[in-house]
Amino acid sequence: MQYRNLVARVAIFKLSYRRFASLHINQQSSCFTPLTPSLSTCYKKEHTLNSVNNGFAKNMFKGFINSAAEEKVSIKVSQDKRLAILSEANEETLNFHALWLRHNCQCSDCKQPYSGQKAITVAQLKKAYTIKSVHVDSEKFVHILWNEENHLSRFPLMFLRENRYSDDALRRQKSNSSLAVENTASVLPKIKYEALLNEEGVFQWMNMINLHGLCLIQGVPLSDGMVRNVAKLIWPIQHTIYGSVWDVKSDPRPINIAYSDVKLDFHMDLAYYESPPGIQFLHCMRFDDCIEGGDSLFVDAWHAAETLRVKHPEDFEILTRIPATFQKIHSDRDHPVHMIYRRPHIMATPDGQIVGVFWAPAFEGPLQIKEDLVEHYYRAYHRFATLIDNSPTKISFRLVPGDLISFNNRRILHARSEFHLNDGVRHLQGCYMNIDEYQSRLEVLSRRNGKQHPVKHTLNQSWL
After folding, report:
1. DSSP labels, 415-454
2. Spatial contact of 164 and 196, defined as CB atoms under 8 Å apart
3. Angle at which helices 313-321 and 374-389 pack, to 10 degrees?
4. Which of 315, 393, 305, 406 is nearest to 357 (CA)?
């Protein structure tokens, strides 16, 4: 009998709560309005706040607090009303500023349910907020009333947990996403093409690129445009001044140094773009045995930059502060190009976390900096170049037809040894993918089926 009474009381409570939750505050008229227009009843602001602070709302919130206590979750307001303090069993106590909470309100008035975008403007918000009352309900939602406006904010507990910003939480977040020396590849990561025919295989492939910077796919069919099809298993490819899919063949009048037979030093592609390509794909279509040379080389630029930071901090600081000139100026082509972009070789946060590396000596223009910085720059520049050339992360191999090398262009520099065709043919097809779309796809797959693999930093310049 006691159990039946308890079930009945819970049912009545849930029905009452749903009716209460169906009310939302119309800030323009300072009233509560039912979501069903035909039942719309408006109350004056004073009456609304009194109702919330007394009787019905208090009784309901009392039930919320009791239920939350059973789950060992509690939330209270700091003495100055500027913080909400969340406590959970076996978890750190979390502080959330009133301003942060109001700006991140998750109610349907402030955040559009389907798009997930904010529906409230900065101009609608106050410059300061204090908390009038805060409550946790039985469905693990936090409800907050404000002193400065007639608005009821709502937050899933999970949202607050996932977006905590305590010192410990920020340290853990940085640790989970930061690259580490053990992430550098000592051997070339590989995967068979057949493994990519299911989503699990695609995730494994993308995860290897994320962890180690590159992955070789073996046994890719030798069909024209197959490189695009493989890349599209992740996301549609990126169009650049070289088109969508491009061919790397020796040409007597090349529009790019790669379209010749000379040695290519370590570089990233399209460093003269504001946002250089993220993932690069190169599919070996043909590589005749008679060809001498032409080996592919790869090195981890992040590892070289991190070594510079640790062993030569002054040179590191110079390369994070003084801009190099990256350029592509070429008029003698079907679509003339004049692109110049200046930025430092290394992008870092104030605490020294490396978030971007830009290195492409063949595509550098004249340095344009203050006179007293020139010699300092070139000293650091040569030091960094030496660390790249002598890096223990260097990998060298010869592609064979059917190989498709995929790598993070923001992190992994690539090079090629000089070659002699000897009447043979060396033919690669390539394409690019935006780094943000690659990372987005990886984040989605890492969360699917409970994988929850922490995604490592992709050197997309996002702060850790």
Report:
1. EE--EE-TT--EEEEEEEE-HHHHHHHHHHHHHGGG--PP
2. no
3. 110
4. 305
Q: C-alpha distances in angstroms, 140 versus 110, 143, 256?
A: 19, 10, 58
3-state SS class at 129: coil
User: Alpha helices of 253-358 — where are they, by DSSP H?
Assistant: 301-311, 313-321
Joined together, the tokens standing for residue 420 give: 């002699």
Residue 274 CB partners (closer than 8 Å, separation 6+) = 341
Measured in whole angstroms, the distance separating CA 84 from the mean position of its chain's CA atoms is 29
Q: Which residues are CB-contacts of 272 (< 8 A; sequence separation ≥ 6)?
A: 326, 327, 328, 339, 340, 341, 360, 363
The count of residues in the chain is 464
Q: What are phi and psi of 250, to 5 degrees?
A: -70, 130
Contact 31, 151 (CB under 8 A): no
Per-residue pLDDT of the chain (464 residues; tens, 9 = 90+): 444 444 444 444 444 444 334 433 333 333 333 333 332 333 333 333 333 344 434 444 444 443 444 458 899 999 999 999 999 888 889 999 999 999 999 999 999 999 999 999 999 999 999 999 999 999 999 999 999 999 999 999 999 999 999 999 999 989 889 998 877 877 899 999 999 999 999 999 999 999 999 999 999 999 999 999 999 999 999 999 999 999 998 776 676 777 788 899 999 999 999 999 999 999 999 999 999 999 999 999 999 999 999 999 999 999 999 999 999 999 888 899 999 999 999 999 999 999 999 999 999 999 999 999 999 999 999 999 999 999 999 999 999 999 999 999 999 999 999 999 999 999 999 999 999 999 999 999 998 867 777 899 999 999 98
Kindly give the residue spans of alpha helices, DSSP state H, lying in 193-249: 199-212, 226-231
